[in-house]
Write a structure and sequence with these properties.
The chain is α+β, with helices and mostly antiparallel strands. Helix content is 39%, strand content 14%. It starts with 18 loop residues before the first helix and ends in a 6-residue tail after the last helix.
């Protein structure tokens, strides 16, 4: 996706790791994990182009025999990106991700990809990693965005509303986990969960941008606005999925049902509205790009009013202070986009700009939210 052609896929540098070497290392490691008649074989290994910013994803096939019977299957390994890959996030706590996924699978019927192994020894592949079974299905693509073409774009309004419904249902099930502080102690801490979340975003902004001299006035204005308009009591905290949106749900091509709920690296303890606001904001980011290029996009999809209504139907909870949380989501996404801009400049995939606010691709959206002029449904 580019400023000139939104239909163009972003070609991003994802990893320096050699695929053949990784396959050999994985095969040797698998020999210590599975009961096999002979040495396991990794028959193919690829790194999806879409990976490498939040983590490095490895897709591989492995085969072995046990008691003369064929075994193995399709697997996914996730590992932190190398520092040479100019990562978007400062920390990649794979053990926490793995524990959250295991906890969600135990506490709900949410289809989390079947977990296989967590490997903390960085000597195996050069960093910790975990492995899960690969699940087949399709997601709402965001590189390039689903608002221009693809199966979501080609769906009927009724089918898109069903995607919205399944997204909200998944969020509601995550939020329905009782006693999240006890089940996920690694995410718990002292004081207000929202305050901890907010301060973590400040630290991330400083690490990703400000500490290196890349201050973004618009993002700093957003921090100040949110501080000055801090919401009231948000009610009991829940487990927050973090990156809650259809792009992280795998849907069965045959039935349309939810096949897997993905990407838990932004999981946290916090108010419900963190997850309610996120898919609304991310869709409007894509929809505004479509409008910018005089394309219709999908104005009927992931509507704010629909998500609020569905969330209340599933949970009985009336969403509060959503304008604040939408602005907060736009700020968080702004840090992502500004860091990605820096990353692409670093690799020669983009050029710099004199106006640092232009590092925020959804600049106009965030400015309108701060000014109270953004038009929703």
């Amino acid at each position: 996706m580019s400023a000139e052609d939104p239909n163009q896929r972003w070609e991003l540098t994802v990893s320096d790791r050699d695929n053949d070497q990784l396959a050999e290392q994985l095969a040797a490691w698998l020999a210590t994990k599975v009961d096999a008649d002979d040495a396991p074989r990794v028959t193919s290994l690829t790194k999806p182009q879409a990976g490498g910013m939040s983590s490095t994803t490895l897709l591989f096939e492995a085969e072995w025999t046990k008691d003369g019977e064929a075994a193995g299957g399709s697997f996914v390994a996730r590992m932190p990106p190398e520092q040479s890959a100019f990562p978007v996030f400062e920390n990649y706590d794979l053990e926490t991700q793995y524990a959250v996924m295991a906890g969600v699978a135990e506490a709900t019927d949410i289809p989390v990809p079947p977990l296989c192994w967590m490997e903390s020894d960085a000597a195996i592949l050069g960093s910790p990693f975990f492995v899960m079974r690969r699940v087949n299905g399709r997601v709402a693509e965001d590189n390039p965005p689903y608002v221009f073409f693809g199966w979501v774009f080609d769906s009927t309004p009724e089918e898109r509303l069903e995607i919205t419904r399944k997204t909200v249902e998944a969020i509601a099930k995550v939020h329905g986990i009782e006693n999240p502080e006890e089940k996920f102690p690694m995410l718990h801490g002292e004081g207000s969960a929202l305050r901890r979340h907010f301060e973590a975003q400040k630290r991330w902004y400083n690490w990703a941008l400000a500490n290196d001299g890349f201050r973004i006035p618009l993002l700093e204005r957003a921090f100040e606005y949110l501080e000055q308009n801090w919401p009231g009591d948000s009610g009991p905290d829940v487990l927050s999925w973090g990156d809650a949106r259809p792009g992280n749900i795998m849907f069965s091509e045959d039935t349309g049902e939810t096949a897997a709920v993905l990407d838990w690296e932004m999981a946290a303890i916090g108010p419900r509205e963190l997850d309610v606001a996120w898919p609304i904001l991310i869709h409007r980011f894509f929809q505004d790009i479509a409008t910018q290029f005089d394309q219709p996009g999908l104005p009927d999809f992931l509507r704010r009013s629909d998500i609020e209504k569905l969330y209340q139907e599933y949970t009985g909870h009336t969403v509060r202070d959503l304008d604040w949380y939408l602005t907060y989501a736009a700020l968080r996404h702004g840090i992502v986009m500004a860091r990605i801009k820096r990353r692409m400049i670093h690799f020669g995939e983009d050029t710099d700009t004199a106006d640092r606010d232009d590092y925020v691709m959804h600049r106009k959206l965030l400015e309108a939210l701060l000014d109270g002029t953004y038009a929703w449904d």
